[in-house]
Amino acid sequence: MTKPITRKDTSLPAEQSQQDIYARVTAKILADLEQGNLSWRKPWNSEQMTGQVMRPLRWNHIPYTGINTLILWNAANDQGFTSPYWMTFKQATDMKASVRKGEKGTQIVYADKFTKEEEDANGDLKSSQIPFLKSYTVFNAAQIEGLSDGFYKVPEPVVIHQQARDPKLEQFFAQTKADIYTGTKACYTQSTDRIQMPPFESFETAMRFYAILAHEICHWTKPPHRLNRDFGKKQYGDEGYSKEELVAELGACFLAADLGFEPQPEEHHAAYIQSWLHVLKDDKRFIFQAASHAQKAVEYIHALQSPRP
Asked: What share of the chain is helix, strand, coil (3-state, %, to 5)?
């Protein structure tokens, strides 16, 4: 009797698979940092995306968040994609479209938790939430044929006057109710819970003012009465300080993409690159954690906006 043909299970153990995902994404970002490039800044440096940077979007127009924002921005830059839309093979097929033969997808990640029950020393059942991570593949609209025209349309650039204050951005930051005052430098001081900003007129452009304010407003979300984000900072320049700076950097980039302006110029962060290299080499998971903290900071800031009528 002929034995039935069975497919060999080539899947990796869950823990090993998750480690591979962390290692792959972190390795790419480390390689960029070692060359002096910030992966999350690449879209703003790309000619094909100048003035059109926004969050990567799912097929249903919902933005990707956290680490997937970084992964897809990086992929779009590397491959010259201008469409913000990404979808799985099945999602494209469901829309009567097809991925072009030979196109390679981009791996992104899905994070969730499952409940595990175990007996404790007394024989009682205790449940705990176990986080897990898995990857799946998406394709940019530029790799797909047969989608409706809207998926291929290049987003219109957002135009902000170079010197005048922008009323919409002024209102956005004012509605956070953060205590922002004019001083000699840009910083957030947790002990007083205040943000200091240099005079608006001292900035070369309005966009630079809002970019730096976005960075500081992300720091403003960290105290215990807001998001309670603490990396154990003891002094200027230590590991905890570097981690918080990376979260604020990513948060400012996310916020800039949401609001339509370029984040703080990259040259301002040259001094941080070595410290970020050190942090990411020591902890392959931290870029995922940093992106998650940055996403929570941006969501917190957006939630403070008054609902539209």
From this structure: 45, 15, 40
Whether 166 and 206 have beta carbons less than 8 Å apart is answered as yes
Q: Which residues contact 197 (CB under 8 A, 6 or more apart)?
A: 180, 181, 182, 183, 186, 209, 212, 213, 216
pTM of the model: 0.84
> Whole-angstrom distance between the N-terminal and C-terminal Cα of the chain?
72
Task: For helices 67-79 and 239-259, give the axis angle rounded to 10 degrees.
Answer: 70
List the chain pLDDT tens, one digit each, 309 residues: 433 333 333 333 444 466 788 888 999 999 999 998 888 888 887 777 766 788 999 999 999 999 999 999 999 999 999 899 999 999 999 999 999 999 999 999 987 777 777 777 777 777 777 767 889 999 999 999 999 999 998 777 655 556 789 999 999 999 999 999 999 999 999 999 999 999 999 988 888 999 999 999 999 999 999 999 999 887 887 899 999 999 999 999 999 999 988 887 766 677 789 899 999 999 989 999 999 999 999 999 999 997 754
Strand pairing category for 125-140 and 86-87: antiparallel
Tokens for 304, please give them.
């403070």
Cα–Cα distance between 242 and 245 in angstroms, integer?
5
Beta bridge partners of 132: 112
Backbone angles phi, psi at 263, to 5 degrees: -70, 175
Q: Residues 212, 169: contact at Cβ < 8 Å? A: no
